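Prompt: May I have another protein with tokenized structure?
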Amino acid sequence: MTNDKTKKAAATDGPYDVIYFAKKHRISNEDARAIIEKYGADRKEADKAGRRISV
């Protein structure tokens, strides 16, 4: 039996899904893909970059 906390942690450790990230920051899929490729699993930095270009 798996622990629910383990599942939740595993889901937030990796890089974002491109479509989810693009919708979250209201940017194009191409921009979202570029940010995710650049920052990988570093969600904090990816979110910063997404906020910078969403203006």
